[in-house]
Amino acid sequence: MTSPFYTAEHGAFRDVMRRFVEKEIAPFANAWDEAGEFPRSLYARASEIGLLGLGFPEEFGGVVADQFMKIVASQELARAGSGGISASLMSHTIGAPPIARAARPDIKARVLPEILSGRKISALAITEPSGGSDVANLRTKARREGDCYVVNGEKTFITSGIRADYLTVAVRTGDPGAAGVSLLLIEGDTPGLTRTKLNKMGWWASDTATLHFDDCRVPAENLIGDEGQGFKLIMQNFNSERMGMAASCTAFARVCLDEAIAYAKQRQTFGKPLTQHQVVRHKLVDMAQRVAASQAMLEMLAWRLEQGDNPVAEICMMKNQATQTMAYCASEAVQIFGGAGYMRGVKVERIYREVKVNAIGGGTEEIMKDLASRQMGL
């Protein structure tokens, strides 16, 4: 059945993405996960097919893309079954939008082409050891001294934090609260910046770091937007980030479903395939039902965004819907695989380990519910 949301252009890009993932990522996903990183050259290859530029201004190497093109990109990447690769390869989708939206023209012209070409890596640094979702109370300080800001503080759980060349960093330039938050572009070779690698439950192929800023002197022209505008710019990022996470999580759930169906058809117990056991068939139907519901909700919200709507409450609920669907499908897939699902190197095992980071990153499930309830006037 033809979808009302996807055009021939979307289909052509899906084909390009599928070939890219099958050739450049899927054969190496296990090895990269075990190694804890993937080659920097993958960024340039992703740029060649237009992946890195989706939604960014064409003048800097971007590609015109609607919400559905972004869904295609996220969901095709997920077919490799490695959230760590997706997270780091696409970390610029949260690090670079504030630059494109509010940085000085000369900064945009210098920085964005390098990021979108894959020559340089972009990351967003908001979360601190003292808290993540409570952005308005962040503690990292930037003190103006002449033509520089002097930055002191720490950021943690930063995706691409070890390798990033450009860090979009939330800092406090003013009084307590949201009005005192600003964004600075801090380059990776800035004196006083040190990084500590973090080891994680999942997303092994994605480098994650704690960043330490010790009297880092940052040129004043690296301020993104005006002083005090940082909180607003961060909030503008959230719809896109949460929609991207929802698309990925729904796709990872579908990977678990597909893998479980394939395994259940060939795995024999008591003289017959698992699919001939009613309890297993029902598990697969329950998984398929949740995936279909999540995909339908995702696409309707994408359509609403394309119409100019701003359904914040529903996007928060969508993120939770998708992460819960992923959690359910990953758990059931491992159960269907049995002992084989507990072995490293199997997609469902890796996805199972990656469930929780999605339920935490981009706003925890609890924060999503609270924000949705406020939007609903409760």
Describe the protein.
- By secondary structure, this protein is α+β, with helices and mostly antiparallel strands.
- The chain has three domains: 8-116, Acyl-CoA dehydrogenase/oxidase, N-terminal domain (Butyryl-Coa Dehydrogenase, subunit A, domain 1); 122-230, Butyryl-CoA Dehydrogenase, subunit A, domain 2, CATH 2.40.110.10; 232-375, Up-down Bundle (Butyryl-CoA Dehydrogenase, subunit A, domain 3).
- It has helices at 8-25, 29-35, 41-48, 67-78, 83-89, 92-95, 97-102, 105-116, 230-266, 278-306, 312-337, 347-353, 355-360, 365-375, and strands spanning 122-125, 141-145, 148-159, 166-172, 181-187, 193-197, 208-219, 223-224, 268-269, 272-273.
- Helix 10 runs antiparallel to helix 11.
- The longest helix has 37 residues, at 230-266.
- The radius of gyration is 21 Å and the shape is globular.
- The chain starts with 7 loop residues before the first helix and ends with a helix.
